[in-house]
Amino acid sequence: MKKTRNYTCLLYLCLLDISSVLMFDDIKFFFENASFMPHGHCYLWRPDILWLNVISDFLITVSYYVIPFYLIFLVKKRKDLEFNWIVVMFAVFILSCGTTHLMDIITVWNPQYAIQGVIKFCTALVSMLTAFMLAPLIPKAIRLPSRSELDYSHQQLKTLNEKLVEANASLEEKVRLKTQDLSSLASIVEHSNDVIIQKNINDKIIFWNNASEKFYGYKAEEVMGKSIYDFIPLEKHQEFKEMMDRIYAGEKTESLETMRYNKEGQIVNVSIGISLIRDSFGKVIGSAHIIRDITAKKMVMTELKKSEDRFRRVIEAAPNGLVMVNSKGLIVLCNLQVEILFGIKREDLVGFPIEILIPERFRKNHSGFMKGFLGQPEARQMGVGRDLYGLRSDGAEFSIEIGLNPITIGDEIYILASIVDITKRKALEEQLRHYSKVMEQKNHEMEQFVYTVSHDLKSPLVTSTGFLGLLKEDLLSKKYEDLMDSINRLEKANHRMSQLIDDLLQISRIGRIKLDFDKIDLTTLINNICENLSAQLLEKKVEVEIEENMTLPFADKNRIYQVFENLIINALKY
C-alpha cells in the first residue's frame, strides 16, 4: 500500500509539471473541441456498428469498474498477503482502462479527444508503472508452490497435525500419569518414617515432612524459610558445610553419621543421606536430606563392640592357640599364642589361607577335610588316628593337637580351631612307653624273684617247723640235754629267714640286691646248711657227704648259701 501511494503521488506530480508548462490559454485551446467531428462519423452513423462498439465499451467499462472494488475488498480482508500492493496497482490499472472505454463511448457523440488523450496518457503511465513493479515479482511468483505441491503440503500438514494430536494426547496421558506419580511420591514422602527435609540453594528450608515434625518437635510452619543450620549443633556446622561442598562439586559421598538437636535440646545420633535437586535445565536448585535416627543402632553397636572386646580378650587369654577360619579357608582371627607357636605375626596370617600353617605334604588333602567338616559341622577333634604337625616360620615341624568347633555368624559358618603344641607330651609318651617296657621287664624279673624268694623263705620255715617238732619231742621225752641244741638250730633258721626278708626289702627299695663279694669257706657253709636241715635229713634218712677244705675265691656268701640250700631242699623233695 505504501508503494501504491508513492506511485500515485508521482503521477500527480507529473500532471502538475505538464500543467505548469502549458499556459492557461494553451490549456483552454487544448481542450477546445469545436473543430473536431464526433467519432460516430467514423461509423457513418450506422446503428449496427455504432451500438455494437458502444455496448461493448459500456460492458467493458462496467466490468473494469467492478473488478477494482473486488480487488480492494480482497486487500482489505487479506492483510496478510505478501504482495497486496501489486493488487492495488492492478486495481488502478483496470480502473484506468475502464475510464478509457468510457471515453470511447462519449467521443462517439461528443468529440472530447483531448480529455480522452489525457485519460489514455494516465492509463499508459499506470500501465508502465504496473509492468515495472510486476517484473521483480515474477521470479518470486514462479517459486510459489503449485496446486499439487500445495495439496501435498496440505496432506503432510494434515498428517503432521494428526501425529501432533496423537503426541499431544500421549503427552497429556504422560503428564497425567506423571502428575499421579508425583502425587503418590509426595504422599509417600509426606508419610515416610524417615525424616525428609528439602532446602534451597540458600540453605533455607522449603519442605518438612511429618516424620521431621515428630523427630525435631517443630511444625512445618515453624521452620519454613529458616536456615537449616539452625537445627545443626554449632560444632557440626563445618562438617555439614564441607559435606555440601563435596556434593556440589559432584563427589559421591556415603551417608554421614553425626548428631542433631531436637526441640527439647536433646542430642540425637543420626545418619544423613543428601542428594541434589535440579530444575528442568539441570541447574542445581537445592538438596534433599534423608535423616534416620540411629540412637538404638549406636547402642547395639556399642554393646556389640563391648562383646567383641570381651571375645577378643577371651581369645587372647586362652592358653591354647586359637585360629578362626571362614568358609573359604582364609584366616580371619588368631591370638597371641598362635604367634608364639608358629613364630609368625598375626598381620602376616590374617587374610591368608590356613594351609600356610601346615607342612607342604599335608596341604593337598586339607581342602577335602575342610569341606567334609563344613558338610557336617560339629565340635570334634581333627585328624583322629593321625599324627598332626604344624609348620613354624623357620620351616621346623612340631606335633600339634587340634580341636574344631563351628561358629555361625550371620549366614556364614566359621571354624574355630584350638591348637595345642604336644611336642613335650609326645616326648613324655615316648618316655612312658620306654618305662613301660622297663617295667614289664622288671615285672618279669619280679615274678622270677618272688618265685625264688618264696622258695627261699619256705626253706627256713620248713627248718623251723622241723626243729619245733624236735623241741616238742624233747620236751615230751624230757631230753633236756638236747633241748638247747634244737633251740640254737631254730635260732639260726630264724636268722636266715630274717636275712632273706632284709634282702627282699632292699630289692623293693632300690630295685636290686647289693652283692658282698668275698672268699667263702664252702665246706663250713654246706655244714651249716645241713645242720639247719638236719630235721628234714633225719626224716628223709638222707646223709650228706661234704668234702674238706672246699673254698670259693670270689662270691657273695648269702647268694651261695641260697643256691646250695635250694639244691639240698630240692634233692630232699624230689
Mean pLDDT across all residues, rounded?
Answer: 78
Please give the alpha-carbon distance between the first and last residues: 176 Å
**Major sheet attributes:** 6 strands, antiparallel
Q: Could you estimate the helical fraction of the residues in percent? A: 55-70%
The shape, in one word, is rod-shaped
Q: Count the E strands.
A: 13
What is the total domain count? Answer: 4
Q: What structural category characterises the helix and strand content?
A: alpha+beta
What brief labels describe this structure?
574 residues, alpha+beta, 4 domains, six-stranded antiparallel β-sheet, five-stranded antiparallel β-sheet, disordered N terminus
How would you portray this structure in words?
This protein is of the alpha+beta class. The protein folds into four domains: 2-143, no CATH class; 191-293, PAS domain (Beta-Lactamase); 320-421, PAS domain (Beta-Lactamase); 435-573, Up-down Bundle (Four Helix Bundle (Hemerythrin (Met), subunit A)). It has helices at 2-21, 24-30, 47-77, 84-109, 113-134, 137-143, 147-190, 210-216, 220-223, 237-248, 295-317, 336-342, 360-375, 423-477, 480-510, 522-532, 534-540, 557-573, and strands at 195-200, 205-208, 256-261, 267-278, 284-293, 321-325, 331-334, 380-381, 388-391, 397-409, 412-421, 517-521, 551-556. The strands form three sheets. Strands 6, 7, 8, 9, 10 and 11 form a six-stranded antiparallel β-sheet that branches. A five-stranded antiparallel β-sheet has the order 2-1-5-4-3. Strands 12-13 form a two-stranded antiparallel sheet. Helix 3 packs antiparallel against helix 4 (84-109) and helix 14 (423-477) packs antiparallel against helix 15. The longest helix has 55 residues, at 423-477. It is rod-shaped and about 235 Å long. The protein starts with a helix and ends with a helix.
